[in-house]
Amino acid sequence: MTSSPMAPPVFKGALVSADRLRPGSSVVVFQYNPETLTRTLAARTTGGESGAGPLRLAGPPDETIKLSVEIDATDQLERGDPLTKSVGIAPALARLELLLYPASAAVIANEALAQAGVIEILPSQAPLTLLIWGARRILPVRVAEFSLTEEAFDLYLNPIRAKVDLGLKVTTYGDVGLASAAGALSMAAHVGREVLAGLGG
Fold first, then answer.
1. What is the rounded CA–CA span in Å between residue 32 and residue 71?
2. pLDDT at 196 over 50
3. How far apart are CA 43 and CA 61, in angstroms?
């Protein structure tokens, strides 16, 4: 079914990871936008215990986001897409799963350094990951929860339909400072909320 040329464009949500070691696997555009997105905010406060002094806001709230991403190969299989016929939706699932894995090149390099006698080897730093939910909501996040349910398979047991439940922890300037890229994006979101709050009041 073709859409009308007069229909407005539908923007797709996405997770984008700025990982220079894996540039080809760092963009996950949602095939279908999740129907719901649950946000939980917990205030960061200090003082005010037992009425001793005023309650103060110690920074932006801790925010978590939960959403479900559905992936389905039906359309690609109907079109006869050779990659989907060969491996199903495994590439899309792998892109999501890699948000939790360090780059293999970094793991191998660290092991080589360890074998060479380097005393202290730091774990791989997680790349900057962004949840893009429209033009006005671009948030730095960390994947805190990941639950994958594979719901259907082809004859070769490749997954062809799945649902991924994600729990994302929003990274704020209170966590990483304003000078970092994540901190600057967090402050931009903060200012955006203040602007929205002043509209239509």
1. 7
2. yes
3. 4
Q: Note the pTM of the prediction, 2 decimals.
A: 0.86
* pLDDT score, position 19: 80
Alpha carbon of 131 to those of 76, 102, 142, 188: distances in Å?
25, 19, 9, 14
Residues in a beta bridge with 28:
15
pLDDT at site 138: 95
The number of residues in the chain equals 201
Q: In whole angstroms, give the CA distance from residue 84 to residue 112.
A: 37
Q: Please give the Cα distance from 81 to 103 (Å, whole number).
A: 29
- DSSP letters, 4-19, are PTTSPPPPPPEEEEE-
Spatial distance between the Cα atoms of 119 and 192, rounded to a whole number of angstroms: 45
